[in-house]
Please model this.
Amino acid sequence: MTKRRSPWLLAVTALVYIFLYAPIIVLIVFAFNSSRTNVVFEGVVNQGDCGPFYWFCQLGRNRELVAAARNTLVVAATSTVASTVIGTMAALALQRYKFPGKAYSEISLYIPIVIPEIVMGVGLLVLYSALFGFINTTFGLNGDNRLSLGLGTVILSHIAFSVPFVALVVRARLQGFDKAVEEAAMDLYANEWTTFWRVTLPIIFPGVMSGALLAFTLSLDDFITTFFTTGPGGTTLPIYVYGLLRRVTTPELNALATIWIVIVFVVLMLSQLAGRRSEAH
Amino acid sequence: MPEFAVELRNVSKRFPGPSGEIVTAVNNVTMQIKDGEFFSMLGPSGCGKTTSLRMIAGFELPTAGEIYIHDRPMGHTPPYKRPVNTVFQNYALFPHMTIGQNVGFGLEMKGVEPKEIQRRSSEALEMVRLAGYEKRMARQLSGGQQQRVALARALVNHPEVLLLDEPLGALDLKLRKEMQLELKRLQREVGITFVFVTHDQEEALTMSDRVAVMSAGNVLQMGAASEIYEKPNCRFVADFIGETNFLEGAVKAQTGRDVDVELAGGLLCRATADEGSQVVSGQKVTVTMRPEKLGLRPWQGADNVYDGRVEEVVYIGTDTHYTVVLAGDQRLRVREQNDDPLSRPLAAIGDAVKVYCDEVSARVLTE
Amino acid sequence: MAIDNSAQLVDAPPRNRWQGILLALPVTLLMTVLLVVPLIIIGVNSFGQRGPDNTIIYNFNLNNYLRLLGISEPGVWDTLYLEILVRSLWLAFQSTVLVILVGYPLAYFIARAPRKQRNFWLFLVLVPLWTNFVIRVYAWIMILRNQGVLNSLLGWAAGLFGLNFTPLDLYPSDFAVLVCMVYEFLPFMILPMFTSLEKIEDSLYEAAADLGANTWNTFWRVTFPLSLPGIVAGTILVFIPVMGTFIVSDILGGRQVILVGNLIQRQFLDARDPVFGSAATIVLMVMTLAVTLYYTRKFGFAEEAFGR
Model:
């Protein structure tokens, strides 16, 4: 069926897409700027061995930045795995079972979604400070042994804010789940445990994967929670970039953004293709 | 070998309803299902037939009473330890597995070795006429094919009892009829006890050796298909199975099983009571007559003859249905076969006619 | 499996209950320790008093809240903090309205695109979301600053017509903050709006046309009411984070635009006045919860927010 489209709608749509992509294009173009101050585009850089990719090469020599990139990936990977497991369990519990305290579990799980992130970030900061202060004085820890904010607290905090989203996504998947399929497995001599691993999990797996993808995205993108819970050794890319923004920015930052965008784009395309293939299967 | 494949003794199932009230799904049901028979539980939705089946399978546990399979009490035995298999209403095929993996699942769980699984799976698929479908996925199959895979998946395990929960409900009429015959054939071939749940009375009558008619958690009548149809023991059963006429009246006289009933409008009816049923003079009763047992054409020795006027004539091909108004504004539906070569109607609307009925065809119902 | 014999009438298998408890245990522990307990601490602290050496004196008073309201000193009404609260609400309101206005045509366009194209168009909306939040803020600096991309483009265009052009003073400014907020949260509005709009079947548009409705009437009588759940969901998804974000105003506002988020951040990290910060945090939380609750009560809660 072909529909007549209003030219106005098409024009507005085009403008919105331009609005969405203009900043991204600017980021990429300025990654090739020959001006170090990077305010005005003064032509394509052509310097050193890397030629136009000069800033990309500079990037690799930046120790701080490489460490921040590594931290970001470590945080995202660990928090994704943990929050996917915990969130899936929570979704199963809330969707499938009745138990005392269910209302409490449910409400506490959904609070992070309806409060601004800064509330949680500040709360975590206060909690960690109080807890670490208490432990450090009680056990007389000092110097390097003192517990302090860092990569560990960032990971833990990321798990906390990702779990609700994973639980939501998996729960949505469970809502369309035909319980008769599980009964069929039990009827065919599979016990509860086997039924879960052989039937339930494979069927909800796409939901679990979207949950994991969401958790990963949230973790990579997060600034606020990380900002409040990070400490020595826990600098992630967003925190590092924020620091740069308040000082001085060079096209290196654009190069970093460009690499980021390209990787994300490729990963997204691949996951889209994989999703399409599994659907067609 | 025990006589009964499945036995329910005083089984009840109650659970909390949506607003906290207690719903009785199955109320003190006792039934015996003989070994090797095709047994149906028939009733409208919510009558407790599916809950009964699910209790036999082990998906639900009885609130009270006990279920025996070949004389073994099932107690709290989980479904995966019961010697029964189920064919589900919407097939419940595993969407992430091939047909072969679906059919082989039960054997795999039992620890049968892969070669044997393969052999027996393809045998089972052959039995349901789906040989060579092992590699396909469930959603690539039509509804009827999926249904047969579900059957093969259950039968391949040689269960002591096969439970079927409205397995034909999702199929269209033509396919349904085919599958009914197919199921019957399979049951004869494998000789396994089939317990079949349906709300379709025609389906139950077609396929079953015996039928239990259920309503509101109770078993109203249990017996052979012909018995249920010919000798319903209550108004619900008579009404639910097939089409029938009900006439209200009061008992005038009774000798043995012969009962004289005075109907509204002063009409008299010679009717038959159930064996062992006690009726007394003056008791209010209902007389039921199947439309096909009535006639507009006279025959020798008809016990009851009523004058009436044709109100409606509906031609349905093999038969024509006449609605006749009797004295006292009572209506009888009469079915006459169109065996006349030219299918000329016996009467037209407004015609005065006589309706003939034998005593054995008029049955007295006390409830 | 066992029958609950204590209640002979009704059975509730306790085995299931234990499975449920075990499955919910990790999440409940996690959320209790990392969310509920911190919120309680903040709540308690907000009634405390700042002591020497970063300590808190727990003497349960309302001073922090009175200070926020600007009435802690008798006879003086200091509206500094009230202004911050109002400014934050106003900005969140403006951003949400703008996001709806900008996002709606796009959501409508995608929902009415041929089925096979829809995923592609949606994908294009999501890609910017995957670049980092902070990096997107940086991109807007590059566009909006004095010699930035926008001013260069405008200057070049003016030059074509032989006009004089003075670069616009766009960064740092309130305007820059607003534009960036709209940009950052636009996809969160488009997704739920699209979900709502996609559910409207073609036959409804045809029915409306058949019943004599023109495009305008069809939109206001059919399309818009049916897309409301998506707008409600999107509003919640946009309003809440805008209220709490401090980095956009921090960077693009050039430290001139102070929102609740900035206030809280400074109390905890710069000013070292956590009790006052706690009171501000509680007020922020209560404000967003109140607005969300009022909004969902009024329009009904929308699964669209989380359906996808």
In short: Chain C touches chain A through 89 residues (CB under 8 Å). Confidence is low (pLDDT under 50) at residues 1-14, 304-308 of chain C.
